[in-house]
Amino acid sequence: MTVTTSAPLAPSPHVLDEMTWQSELFASLSTPLHGMSPRAAFQEALWGRATLVDIRPQAQRMAFGCLPDAVSPRAVDRTALAWRLDPASDDRLPIAARDLRVVVVCQEGHISSRAAETLVRLGVRHATGMAGGFAAWQALGLPVAA
């Protein structure tokens, strides 16, 4: 069955206003899906209020650079992240805890948000990805180790 109309289908201005408001609200939430900005992650790590976990493969860290030692980063392979930071795992890192504030870092920010979601599901309540990943960190001129 084909449906035809004489006018294009478009939301009313009222619906667009509501969609804009909802989008702004959604974007303002600090959740693993949205991530922490690189500047905020840098400051939180410097102040000891967050642990940066770089999940990029070693080859990628070698090619693009590493987070500086000043922020005490942890390099954990993405495939091992869940059991290394799961507070209930027998193979967890000593830092693994439900209240650990973790900022997961990948190259562009996509994989880290999914990894943070996994950590939240495991009970690490304060896990998030870093928006834009290491590429955004570099673009902002934040310190990089060779």
Task: Tell me what the structure shows.
By secondary structure, the chain is of the alpha/beta class. The chain contains 6 helices and 4 strands, in the order H-H-E-H-E-H-E-H-E-H. The protein has a 4-stranded parallel β-sheet with strand order 2-1-3-4, sandwiched between helices. Helix 5 links the parallel strand 3 and strand 4 (126-129). The longest helix has 16 residues, at 13-28. Residues 1-19 and 24-33 have low confidence and may be disordered.
With strands numbered from the N-terminus, the spatial order across the biggest sheet is 2-1-3-4
Strand content: 5-15%
Number of separate helices? 6
Shape descriptor reads globular
Q: What Rg is obtained from the alpha carbons, in whole angstroms?
A: 19 Å
Overall mean pLDDT: 83
Class by alpha and beta content: alpha/beta
Largest sheet, strands/sense/barrel: 4 strands, parallel
